[in-house]
Amino acid sequence: MSSSLSTRMTPTSLEAASPLSKSASVWIVCGAAIGLMFGFGPMFFSVAGVFLKSMAVTFGWGRSDVAVLPMFSMIGTALGAPVVGYLADRLGWSKVLAGAIVLMAISMGALAVAPASHVYFAVVGLLIGFFGAGTTAAGYLGVLPRVFDKRLGMALGFAMIGTGVGGFLAPVAANRFGAMMDWRQWYGVSALVALVLGIVAHRLMFRNLPDQKYFAADVQATASAEAGLTLREAMRGYRFWLLAIVMFVMSGAILGGFVHIAPFASDRGLGHTVGAEAAGLVGAGLAIARVGLGVVLDRVFGPLVACAAFLVGALGFVIFVTSASHIPSMVLLAALLLGISTGSEGDLIPFMARRYFGKRSFGAIYGCLFGAATLGGAGGPFLYGLAFDRLHSYTLVHQASLAACLLGALAILLMGRYPVDKAANA
């Protein structure tokens, strides 16, 4: 492909074109972190495993029946992420994120009155995921590459702390408050918290942006002159599809294991507390990975970082498929390793998307790649539940996830060098 990143250079970030003050930079990153902390991932997806058994008991369903809810929510996120990027490139990130916050909260609140209907669960799950896509990394992190340049990796890493902290606290809180309220009340309260704190995060971000032209409808006037590829150009090359497929497979394997950690620990006779703590440690792993990787990505070749992160996930599954899975401390260690591995995706996707495809159509390209990863995450929990219902064991699906991590670690190295003075996707 003849398109070159170096032939279409204009100021592509506010940091480069109009340097941000230190305080403004901090507040923008803090706003993104708070938004992610109270967005779709922590407030909904991270607690799905905690309530999986109780929801199944309420309706007399199997685990795969209840797993329809997180599965369709992830499908909705996979569909919503490209839409978020497309609309943000045209309407501006501020309007898109504001709408996403409100609509996701309304959709979550609908679970508080959920009837015993598979269709209702599927539709509500789809809506939560679709509208919630704007409250995930697809939304908040989509802003940062147009704000930061040299410090992008660090900004992404610190912003993604929100997902890690939220992912750690939400399952623990759900387990503790579960003694005082049922799952219906939990989702009702969560919807209100997500709405209020989401609005706070939105205002922190956009009140501190010194120049709104990169976040309004006229962004298209400058986008055509920016360095990088269009979505269509990116999709013609192997790098786009390689990155999409690897993230799809890795998300399915690791998120599937994450959602089913609590019931897996319970089946091992380790108790509900260990399961909730394990789910919380996944969040801790997310925080560790995202801060560490954010700094490392500014200094180390991205595919090498990804390879190492995926191998860490493989170690977690090694614990699950051996006798070590009967030891509470080892299960907690495995959960931490899975969190570190899956936490890498949040930084890697936007960072590698910008490095390999530029900023010209960053919103659309990033949205599609994030959607691919989310689609994988949608199928993972369902396949885990299906495997358990059919085999009454997680062993086979854990072994498959281990293989996926190893293959993903090797495949990501095929991305090759960052395009600089040659075609961006040759």
UniProtKB/TrEMBL annotation:
Transmembrane segments: 26-47, 67-88, 95-114, 120-143, 155-174, 186-206, 240-262, 274-293, 300-321, 327-343, 364-384, 396-416
PANTHER family membership: EG:103B4.3 PROTEIN-RELATED, MONOCARBOXYLATE TRANSPORTER
Protein name per its UniProtKB record: Predicted arabinose efflux permease, MFS family
Lineage: superkingdom: Bacteria
PROSITE patterns given in the database record: MFS
Pfam families: MFS_1 (PF07690)
InterPro entries assigned to the protein according to its UniProt record, in alphabetical order: MFS (IPR011701), MFS_dom (IPR020846), MFS_trans_sf (IPR036259), Proton-linked_MCT (IPR050327)
Keyword Zinc: no
